[in-house]
Design a protein that fits this description.
Elements (H helix, E strand, L loop, with lengths): L15 H7 L26 H5 L13 H14 L5 E5 L2 H12 L5 E5 L4 H13 L3 E5 L15 E7 L11 H10 L3 E5 L4 H4 L9 E5 L13 E5 L4 H10 L6 H33 L4 E5 L9 H7 L6 E6 L4 H10 L3 E2 L9 E6 L16 E5 L5 H18 L1
Parallel strand pairs: 2-3, 2-4, 4-5, 5-6, 10-11
Antiparallel strand pairs: 1-7, 6-7, 8-9, 9-12, 11-12
Bound molecules: pyridoxal-5'-phosphate.
Length: 399
């Protein structure tokens, strides 16, 4: 956890891609080595009893912050921009979402949550928040400023995820944020898909921006970590909640996240470019009914994406023209460069069948055909297309 970034001396203006490389580094504090050391730490020793009693010292206890957590927190805060007052590091993306909700809410409150929310976050609201006397209403992700009509006197938070990570609806974040703020509610958003590189959540009115660092920050499918970045209004309650609950993350995972962050700018650019090429290619396939990729002009909220986002990651979905499940499975099983597995954001491509129809309560999901989610990794695009061609041939044979 860190709130040091706001006190740091002003940096010369640099582009976000450069920030990924420079963030969280201070080589001459560590004998000139490029990367900071990994501090495995619990106890911090004081020189005297008086120092101990006065908590005198830069660090006071392993769970209160170490040079390793500071390096990662500062790098993440720099990426979020000047609105960021502090960053909390959590053991997973789901823990980041849960901790942000717990920080924003108390017994008797009401929270509005997008119907397209990551399903385990929905389960947290339904199972855990309910037990603590907090009620949840799910809303249509496309509601925009109309969210005002769903606000109750006790609505303390509005939770967004844009785009939804299965069906890719893009939300009007500034409109929802200003409606929420007008009623004194905090705005929480899962910004894992775009990251602060492509969507400046805090600038757009979000108070608590959540990312699963498991995805592109880690980038290698070998790490679970979550991040919540807060503005000045939300940081004290986030910091206090996370610390009081004893939530902390191992230093090796923090170090892996920092290492991943330094290459995230170039990786994300490649995921974006390759993903878009493949999404366009899929749009032309006779077997495909539609492609949900916010950067495609055919996406229903493409105009919103263009207004608010500056890029995309490698995650999108397609609806196939109606075929039997066996044909969809034949397509996926034939792929050799696409793994079949949950999560995303690693260097490798993935393809999974999915169905959101059981996950929705405020909206309905009727894609008109079987749906497949793709994550486009860092492989050569031509190889991925050749692999997909073989997959569609298998689908044709299994029809
Ligand atoms: C949009 C989104 N948010 C949060 C999470 C949870 O992340 P983690 O696996 O790090 O708990 C996921 C995981 O797939 C996700 O897709």
């Amino acid at each position: 956890m860190s709130n040091k970034a706001k006190d740091a001396p002003k940096q010369p203006p640099i582009k976000p891609a450069t920030r990924f490389v420079t963030g969280g580094r201070d080589p001459f504090s560590y004998h000139g080595f490029v990367n900071p050391p990994v501090y495995h730490a619990s106890t911090v020793l004081y020189r005297t009893a008086q120092d101990y009693l006065a908590h005198r010292g830069r660090y006071t206890y392993g769970r209160r912050g170490t040079p390793t957590s500071d390096a990662l927190g500062e790098a993440l805060a720099e990426l979020e921009g000047p609105e960021c007052a502090g960053v909390a590091l959590l053991p997973s993306g789901l823990a980041a979402a849960s901790a942000a909700l717990l920080a924003a809410l108390r017994a008797g409150d009401h929270v509005l949550v997008t119907d397209t929310v990551y399903w385990p976050t929905r389960k947290f609201c339904d199972d855990v928040l309910t037990r603590y006397g907090i009620t949840t209403t799910y809303y249509d992700p496309l509601i925009g400023g109309g969210i005002t009509e769903l606000m109750q006197p006790n609505t303390r938070a509005v939770y967004l995820e844009s785009p939804g990570s299965l069906s890719f609806e893009v939300q009007d974040v500034p409109a929802i944020a200003s409606a929420a703020h007008a009623r004194g509610a905090l705005v929480l958003m899962d910004n894992t898909w775009a990251s602060p590189l492509y969507f400046r959540a805090l600038e757009k009115g979000v108070d608590l921006a959540i990312q699963s660092a498991t995805k592109y920050i880690g980038g290698h499918s070998d790490l679970l970590l979550g991040v919540v970045s807060a503005n000045a209004a939300a940081w004290p309650q986030l910091n206090d909640t996370v610390f009081t609950m004893g939530l902390w993350t191992g230093p090796d995972d923090m170090s892996l996240a920092l290492r991943g962050l330094h290459t995230m700018g170039v990786r994300l650019k490649q995921h974006y470019e390759a993903g878009l090429i493949i999404a366009r290619w899929l749009e032309q396939r006779p077997e495909v009914a539609r492609v949900w990729h916010p950067a495609l002009p055919s996406h229903p909220q493409h105009a919103l994406w263009k207004r608010d986002f500056t890029g995309a990651c490698g995650l999108f979905a397609v609806a196939l023209k109606p075929v039997a499940d066996a044909a969809v499975h034949a397509l996926i099983n034939e792929l050799t460069l696409f793994g079949i597995g949950a999560s995303w954001g690693g260097y490798e491509s993935l393809a999974i069948p999915f169905d959101c129809s059981e996950m929705r309560t405020a909206t309905s999901w009727a894609p008109g055909g079987p749906t497949v989610r793709f994550h486009i990794g860092l492989e050569d695009v031509d190889d991925l297309i050749a692999d997909l061609e073989r997959g569609f041939a298998a689908l044709g044979r299994a029809r």
